[in-house]
Amino acid sequence: MLNDIYNDTKETMAKSIDSLKRDYGTLRTGSVTTNIVDHIRVDYYGTPTALNQVGNVTVSDATTISINPWEKTMLSAIEKAIQEANIGVNPNNDGDFIKLFFPAMSAEQRKEIVKQAKGMTDNAKVALRGVRKNANDDIKALEKDKDISEDEAKRAFDEIQKITDTNVALCDTLFASKEQDILKV
Q1: How far apart are the C-alpha atoms of 102 and 109, rounded to whole Å?
Q2: CATH number of the domain encompassing residue 136
Q3: Which terminus has fewer CB within 10 Å in the chain: N or C?
């Protein structure tokens, strides 16, 4: 019973950490990555479709992303989707493909992106605390139903707290690493 709660808690917290890593991938650091445009959806014949599903998305150099649509008729829809996504650059459409030129980031922009990363980290920590609360509620229910003793419940609460502390520390470590990456010139 308790081992199931521990395993479920670890698994759910691991998913929260994975989600945080995916969120970090959308942030811009010193050089651009295609992750910056991963969340952009293009209207593909009435269906919101991921940008990488309607064309090739590649990094040309440290500051440029190129988008080569599979159908030339999609150029305007892709351009519109990028503008609406508000990623900080305007698309350049040359009739065959779209290029996104990212200027070098200023110190102010870097600090703003660090704030976004901090917000993502805080959201992940809130999610971890929610998982901890659910696990503690499950333990309380077991204790109330007399399935476990008071001492076993106390040990279980301590174990859940240790799991939570480990994952919160991991969030802090990931944030410190991402912050360093963002601030590196």
Answers
A1: 12
A2: 1.10.132.20
A3: C
Residue 93 domain boundaries: 34-101
Q: Give the contacts of 134 (CB within 8 A, at least 6 positions apart).
A: 9
Rounded CA separation 92/123 (Å): 34
pLDDT digits (tens, 9 = 90+) for 44-93: 888 999 988 999 999 988 789 999 999 988 898 999 998 888 887 889 98
Q: How far apart are CA 105 and CA 31, in angstroms?
A: 9
Query: Based on the domain organization, do 134 and 169 belong to the same domain?
Result: yes
Nearby residues of 171 by Cβ (< 8 Å), 6 or more positions away: 17, 20, 121, 124, 125, 128
User: What is the SS3 assignment for 105?
Assistant: coil
What's the rounded Cα separation, in Å, for the pair 148 and 144?
Answer: 8
Q: Judge if 111 and 152 occupy the same domain.
A: yes
Q: Where are the beta strands (DSSP E) in 1-160?
A: 41-44, 47-50, 55-61, 64-69, 91-93, 98-101
pLDDT confidence of 185, banded at 50, 70, 90?
low
- List C-alpha distances in Å: 143 to 6, 36, 102, 139, 147: 16, 47, 57, 6, 6
Residue ending a domain, choose from 64, 83, 101: 101
| Stated pTM of the model | 0.74
Please, which residues bridge with residue 161 across strands?
none
